[in-house]
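Our consortium's second objective concerns turning raw sequence data into structural hypotheses that experimental partners can test. To show how far this objective has progressed, the report includes one record in full. It was chosen at random from the queue rather than selected for favorable results. The single chain below, 274 residues long, was entered without modification.
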Amino acid sequence: MPELPEIVVISRQMNETVRGKIIEKVEILQPKCLNRDENDYLKYLPGRKVEQVSPFGKWIKIRFDNQDHLFISLGMGGEIIYFTDSAVIPEKSKLIVFFEDGSGFYITLWWFGYFHLVRQGEKNQMTDQLGEDVLEISADEFATLLKKRKRARIKSFLLNQKNLRGIGNFYIQEILFLAKLHPMRQIVSLSDDEIEHLYQSIHQVMERSIALGSSSYELDFFGKKGKYSLKELSFAYDEDGCCPECGIKTQKIKTGSTIQYICPSCQVLNISDG
């Protein structure tokens, strides 16, 4: 599932590649992914020029010359791939955008995703409710936000896109290990120093992945894999692994509906913490 690093890499590549191009036509092969009638897309998108492409949490935001936006979410997994030859477009594509110069991009989805056309001045429930970008929020704003949700557990808080947008299940494990926080710790139990360390850990993990072209499990806009592999993680997803700092065997725990690996020595959950 693409998270903020993958979306940042793709958005930057798209912005460099398709900014200024004019849409000739679109093909929609998965209408249930839309937020409005299919005919609106077929009517409003042709003739639009791409002004900017930017990341918006786990969404890609395309702004057109008339200030309309196309928000794209790859959901639980998918690719958005640039082409210069329409012969390479796979049959399983769900949305295809053709530009006047013969290039374009197609989107494939493994499970579900969204293509939301939002016209100037309109509201869009799924994107309007998202929190601030996890890499754009300041350290002070981050601390203030956490202290407003004292009874929340830190992992569930960070994964909730209404609080902060961009973090998902792949990166959360490494973030919490670097911050030396048990995923079930309540925010009220965190000291100011721990909150600051958590903020720094988020930036360290996310920025490292972006620098490496994002996850090796995802494809960028040109169909290439990133270089942020499991080798970048402190102890990956390995029950038989050991903490690189203290040597204790890692522990697999259930955190709500998800599983996480922790170091039981470095990421302690005291009774008073939970």
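The partners drew two points from this record. Residues 132-218+230-262 form a domain with the Helicase, Ruva Protein; domain 3 fold (CATH 1.10.8.50). The mean pLDDT is 95. Both points have been shared with the crystallography group to help prioritize constructs.
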